[in-house]
Write a structure and sequence with these properties.
Layout lengths: L1 H15 L9 E7 L5 E9 L2 H5 L1 H4 L1 E6 L4 E6 L6 E10 L9 H4 L2 E4 L4 E7 L2 E4 L5 H26 L8 H30 L6 H28 L2 H14 L6 H5 L6 H20 L9 H11 L2 H16 L6 H10 L3 H14 L9 E4 L4 E3 L7 E7 L4 H16 L6 E7 L4 H10 L8 E4 L8 H5 L7 E5 L5 E4 L9 H16 L1
Parallel strand pairs: 1-7, 11-12, 12-13
Antiparallel strand pairs: 1-4, 2-3, 2-5, 5-6, 7-8, 9-10, 9-13, 11-14, 14-15
Length: 507
């Protein structure tokens, strides 16, 4: 009888086991050398296109504490590929921070069942053998990136572009060698990827390949954009002429022709290429001019169609909208032409939150005196909100340029200049206030608390570029997010006019 019961139980298990499926999950774990004194590892992960495009700010935060020399982060609710950014390694020792820099500047594309397994020692961050081929491939690409960045710095220094004697000859030789350098870098990326995957490349391998090519080519064109804006007069002219002859309007041949979509990094490069084409063209007229989103969208519409249009215009929107004013006309073009439902939903949501006339976010935050300030305290006032963080050079520059504008409205009680700091530490915020580099003590100065840029107010507006300004009228309605940038020539008066118009509304 006992044997029959055991046999029935065995048969029952055999029948039920196929019905009970244990779902594998993605894991990020590792072992840590105790002498490094690592306290925790913080990551951001992204599962939708907006999060991927703004992973530093919109990515979902997760912290893994290091206990007994080990850490583990689980991602149980993810059904498909996702992106993982290692945001910071928090150590009690300042001397170990540099060893993590190569890892911190990259995102990993992971499958929903992948295990990213690190061995962290004084010799660096190594990948354990248990990690998947795609993760091993990406670690090799990180190593390649670190090596080539050092080589590029050495290459640039060898041409002594700061020396104006016979500059044109040296600059043109440098630009030609730089093109060869980046072409070779793309070839090396292909070699690494094909060393881990067989043809035809699986979808994840193609995404890794094109993401990395996009990141690399973006660095290439950014070098010329930087020179067009900030180099001395002679080098600037040479750089602009070379860009016009060799880069303007051009894609990258077979690489572009073979692209089938699905790599946000490559789509971002194509969007940035349009921006730099415009930037270089504008700098033919005058340097330090602003590239707005509207002409970028117009050119993208002429260059791309279908899925590629959606990917590129969405990448450009994420980039430009975080820095520049987007008007209703541009939003109308975007929402009428984008076909991808997820992208369309995000753009429409941001339009409803940020376009002129939208209701401003309801908040209550701590001020520099320990009190609390909310929208209710600002009723009837035109408020210029300024979001900043300690260490932001652009924030320091903007504060300096805002001085004359604040002086123009100093005697108007209906205008309030309000700064919002996204530092995570209160003492850092207060120290920066005392420095006078970021805000005036006479302003209304608020702090979002320890959540930093994960605060719902920051997330609501998808702020991922600093400084960010928002002008709000006396009815708590947005006049402009990212109004005219007073650091740019000719933009100051346009900014002042927006404030004056907002004042007129309350009358």
């Amino acid at each position: 009888m006992e044997k029959k019961i055991i046999l029935c139980m065995v048969l029952l298990v055999l029948v039920l086991c196929p019905m009970v499926q244990i779902r594998a999950q993605a894991v990020f774990k590792g072992k840590v050398d105790p002498s490094l004194d690592l306290e925790y590892i913080e990551v951001r992960y992204a599962v939708d296109r907006a999060q991927v495009g703004k992973i530093y700010n919109l990515g979902i935060p997760l912290i893994g504490k290091v206990e007994s020399g080990e850490f583990q982060l689980d991602f149980p609710d993810i059904d498909g590929p996702f992106y993982l950014l290692i945001y910071q390694f928090k150590s009690k020792r300042a001397d170990v921070a540099g060893m993590f820099i190569p890892i911190l500047s990259h995102t990993f594309l992971m499958e929903s069942t992948d295990t990213l397994d690190f061995n962290i020692t004084r010799d660096g961050v190594l990948l354990a053998d248990r990690s998947s081929p795609s993760l091993k491939c990406q670690m090799d690409l990180i190593g390649l990136n670190a090596k080539n960045l050092k080589d590029r710095i050495s290459l640039t220094r060898s041409y002594r572009l700061e020396d104006t004697v016979d500059l044109e000859t040296r600059a043109l030789a440098y630009f030609q060698e730089l093109q060869i350098f980046y072409d070779r870098w793309e070839g090396q990326i292909r070699e690494v990827v094909r060393g881990h995957f067989k043809d035809p490349l699986p979808e994840i391998a193609e995404a890794i390949l094109y993401n990395k090519i996009g990141d690399t080519r973006r660095m290439e064109i950014a070098a010329f954009g930087h020179m067009a804006e900030r180099a001395g007069p002679e080098l600037r002219k040479i750089a602009i002429r070379h860009y016009l002859e060799h880069y303007m309007g051009r894609q990258h041949g077979p690489t572009f022709a073979a692209y089938r979509g699905g790599a946000p990094g490559y789509a971002s490069f194509l969007g940035q290429k349009v921006v730099y084409d415009l930037l270089v063209g504008l700098n033919l007229v005058e340097r330090n001019m602003t590239v707005q989103l509207e002409p970028v969208v117009d050119i993208i519409g002429k260059r791309y169609t279908g899925r590629l249009y959606d990917e590129v215009v969405f990448a450009a929107y994420l980039d430009r909208a975080s820095k520049r004013f987007v008007d209703e006309k541009t939003y109308s073009i975007l929402t009428s032409r984008i076909r991808d439902p997820e992208m369309l939903q995000y753009v429409a949501q941001q339009r409803d939150r940020t376009v002129g006339g939208s209701k401003f976010y309801e908040f209550e935050l701590q001020d520099q005196n320990g009190g609390r300030i909310s929208n209710r305290d600002l009723e009837g006032k035109v408020v210029i909100y300024d979001f900043w963080f300690t260490g932001c050079r652009g924030c320091i520059t903007l504060h300096r340029y805002m001085g004359p504008i604040k002086a123009r409205f100093r005697d108007d009680p209906n205008v309030v200049f309000l700064s919002i700091c996204v530092d995570r530490k209160e003492e850092m915020w207060k120290g920066s206030l005392k420095s006078g580099n970021y805000a005036d003590m006479g302003d209304t100065n608020l702090w979002v608390g320890e959540m930093g840029d994960n605060h719902p107010m920051v997330q609501h507006f998808s702020i991922n570029s600093y400084p960010t300004q928002i002008i709000v009228d006396g009815n708590n309605r947005i006049v402009a997010m990212n109004p005219p940038d007073v650091r740019k020539k000719g933009e100051e008066e346009a900014f002042v006019e927006m404030v004056k118009e907002a004042l007129e509304r309350r009358r």
